[in-house]
Amino acid sequence: MALSTHRTTTALLRHLTPAISYLRHISTDSTSTITVETSVPFTGHKIDPPSRSVDTTAQELMSFFRDMALMRRMEIAADSLYKAKLIRGFCHLYDGQEAVAVGMEAAITRKDCIITAYRDHCIFLGRGGTLLESFSELMGRKDGCSKGKGGSMHFYKKEGGFYGGHGIVGAQIPLGCGLAFAQKYKNDENVTFTLYGDGAANQGQLFEALNMAALWDLPAILVCENNHYGMGTAEWRAAKSPAYYKRGDYVPGLKVDGMDALAVKQACRFAKEHALKNGPIILEMDTYRYHGHSMSDPGSTYRTRDEISGVRQERDPIERVRKLLLAYDIANEKELKDIEKEARKQVDEAIAKAKESPLPEPSELFTNVYVKGYGVESFGADRKEIRAALP
Ligand SMILES: Cc1ncc(C[n+]2csc(CCOP(=O)(O)OP(=O)(O)O)c2C)c(N)n1
Ligand SMILES: [Mg+2]
């Protein structure tokens, strides 16, 4: 395979095969323990990393496969809907990064909070959101998770502990630390995962929020989803030190293979325990997006096609789990293909239903803007004459 001259390329490629040779076959009973080694060891900063032996079960591996296949299909379908002009505005796809969403969910509960940037569709599904809510939101329909008023970048599901979907790079980081503050204040023994990209990792607000989180020992887990590009800028062009797990200085960090769902699970479990006892920790997830930054970016002008296909061949998160399922005789090729077919069917059905969902009423323009009951009033310069009042 021809490698690009980009400095990131060799680091991005890592063989799937070594992980498989580490397997220890214990049992294929659906709930008995299987121990699998992560693709690569964790690297710690100011902390001893967890073991690379991860306990899992046949049931869990099947659910990883199913969930990631569904996420992948959802994103591919969103791409087509966008090209058919049924989705308008911004749209950032998550295919390639699915292991972060499913591995994180496997380690936490819905009482733990997650907040992320605009690449949010699959995080929403992981939090229990439905395909119908997703496609309706993407197409601006009433049945969307944000009532069709948020679109791709503003998925939300408070009852599932998901606080969005934010379009301003890095803006969700202080908000996530605020959620962790509320958890600590209420003594509720849960944590907040605040996701941000490598492009946000050099912003000042990250360090300001981290400083406060560390001062107050907040249960804040900062997850840098390092997909190695911020729009068309490679990480090495934007960061003097792209070792984002070390960038918290006095805050411990862990570098994780974000293409390995089991490694993500192990790291998130470890981080949750750490954060509840000691305060914040940074997890740098080494991951990759297959699509361009957004739908207006073909994604191939600042990186080579060989780089993308190399990652697909050697590190794809779904293929990693497929190989484990086959190696352990948990499922055969046909059964796994059938799961993928079923995912396609579920996605097609959800799209058909979402297309029937109406657009929001014009009056909805004025709802969900301010907290209910507070309203907003606009005054003239003398503050006497009320010019407008919104509900
Ligand atoms: C404050 C701010 N500056 C610039 C932008 C434009 N912008 C949108 S996404 C992006 C790149 C962010 O990259 P990264 O954090 O690595 O996340 P990724 O898209 O890779 O998931 C930029 C510069 C923005 N939305 N907000
Ligand atoms: Mg990035």
Automatic annotation (TrEMBL):
Pfam families: E1_dh (PF00676). Keywords: Oxidoreductase, Pyruvate, Thiamine pyrophosphate. Its cofactor is thiamine diphosphate. It catalyses: N(6)-[(R)-lipoyl]-L-lysyl-[protein] + pyruvate + H(+) = N(6)-[(R)-S(8)-acetyldihydrolipoyl]-L-lysyl-[protein] + CO2. Residues 66-362 form the Dehydrogenase E1 component domain. Residues 303-313 have a biased composition (Basic and acidic residues). Its EC number is 1.2.4.1. GO terms for biological process: pyruvate decarboxylation to acetyl-CoA. It comes from the Eukaryota. Residues 294-313 are annotated as: Disordered. InterPro entries: DH_E1, PDH_E1_Alpha_Subunit, Pyrv_DH_E1_asu_subgrp-y, THDP-binding. Gene3D superfamilies: 3.40.50.970. The keyword Kinase does not apply. One of its GO terms (molecular function) is pyruvate dehydrogenase (acetyl-transferring) activity. It is an enzyme of class 1 (oxidoreductase). PANTHER family: PYRUVATE DEHYDROGENASE E1 COMPONENT SUBUNIT ALPHA, PYRUVATE DEHYDROGENASE E1 COMPONENT, ALPHA SUBUNIT BACTERIAL AND ORGANELLAR. NCBIfam families: PDH_E1_alph_y. The pyruvate dehydrogenase complex catalyzes the overall conversion of pyruvate to acetyl-CoA and CO(2). It contains multiple copies of three enzymatic components: pyruvate dehydrogenase (E1), dihydrolipoamide acetyltransferase (E2) and lipoamide dehydrogenase (E3). Tetramer of 2 alpha and 2 beta subunits. This is Pyruvate dehydrogenase E1 component subunit alpha. It comes from Coffea arabica (Arabian coffee).
